Amino acid sequence: MTPVDFYAFDAEYVRRLCAGEAEVEEHFSLYFEDRLRLKLRSARYDRTENADIIQDTFVRALEKLRNGELRQPQSLGAFVFAICKNICLERSRPRKLEPLSDDYAPASTDDAERDLLETERARALRRAVSQLPAKDRRLLIAYFFEERPKAAICKELGVTPGYLRVCLHRAKKALKRRFLQKFDEKQKSTDEEKDH
User: Is the pLDDT of residue 174 over 80?
Assistant: First the structure.
């Protein structure tokens, strides 16, 4: 760990940090960077992702501190670690949501039918993405397909990191709704063709 001077986390420390005093900001980043890196060791992220999580934690922590969201200055450490934990949870959510469920696949399909079904799903997904509003489409493509850093996406869209999460949630919800609608329509027409 990098040795850092001792500062008590009190109202004065938080005030100086919010005021942007270089000495306190440097202490804050040095003190918490090592501790957050240790905390993230057990997570399955690479070094770059760890660095992104740490930077995102600092940005959000400072934003929340400046908005007066810390009630007890002596709890600054727990406050920062809670923010880091939330960021890790957010990052793990898209990975869990990405795979599409097999609810639409008949249990008795063989490999060729399964491949055809996956192709149809991919087409339905592309159609659904293309029908989203331009802002939602840009956001989903930048975040999931291009895997651009959140900071770059925020800058491009002119939103804060906190509001980016809201935008992402709404865009994913809209995409899911359109995808399920398109995929259901395609399945119905395929089933009708088989019946005739």
Answer: yes
The pLDDT of residue 105 is above 60:
no
CATH number corresponding to 11-96? 1.10.1740
CATH topology of domain 100-195: Arc Repressor Mutant, subunit A (1.10.10)
Q: Which helix (H) or strand (E) holds 189?
A: helix 161-195
pLDDT, mean of residues 96-112: 51
Measured distance CA(58)–CA(166) in Å, rounded: 19
Encode pLDDT of 31-55 as tens digits. 888 888 888 887 777 778 888 898 9
Mean predicted lDDT score pLDDT of the chain: 79
pTM of this prediction? 0.46
Q: Please, which residues have CB within 8 angstroms of residue 29's CB and are 6 or more apart in sequence? A: 58
Q: Where are the alpha helices (DSSP H) in 104-160?
A: 111-130, 134-140, 150-157
The CA–CA distances, whole Å, from 58 to 14, 36, 76, 143, 159 equal 13, 10, 12, 20, 17
Distance between CA atoms of 134 and 193, rounded to whole angstroms? Answer: 34
Ordered by start, the domain boundaries in the chain are 11-96, 100-195
- The answer to whether residues 141 and 168 touch, using CB atoms and an 8 Å cutoff, is no
> Structure tokens of 111?
């490999």
